[in-house]
Amino acid sequence: MGRSDSIDRRRVLAGAAGTVLAVALRPAAAAQPRSETTESAIRRFAGDNPIRPGRVSLDLPPLVENGNTVPLAISVESPMTAEDHVRRIGVFNEKNPQPNVVTVHLRPGAGRAQVATRIRLADTQRITAIAEMSDGTYWSASADAIVTLAACLEG
Predict the structure, then answer these.
(1) Which portions of this protein are annotated as coiled-coil regions (predicted)?
(2) Which of 9, 16, 113, 126 has CB atoms 3.0–4.6 Å from 86's, for a disulfide?
């Protein structure tokens, strides 16, 4: 392998590093457009049923340094019996490319109506959790998160 081979390899690596940097620094305006509105995603989840505030607790940090991994915990007041339990919990956002972050299905055997996960947030926004109960009622809670380093920039 001669000197010219190593120079060519260096040029290729330098070019690849520049391309990666250019992609990483792409402005937020290049983010993928939303597939549907938050309201339509919520209506797809709950139909025309009224959604009442209460019974749902949403734990989300108010200030998020990195939107790529945001801790989220949801609990719903429910005895989780066969007669009275949470059927599912939907989590919705205002600005990510997909408005429905996650839907969790529960059964009475779960024991507690609690879930915890990490989500990605594209920008500062409001997160809403909605619980569907076994009696057909819907309950909700919302929280705002200020995101300093956005995630979900695709496109």
Answers:
(1) none
(2) 113
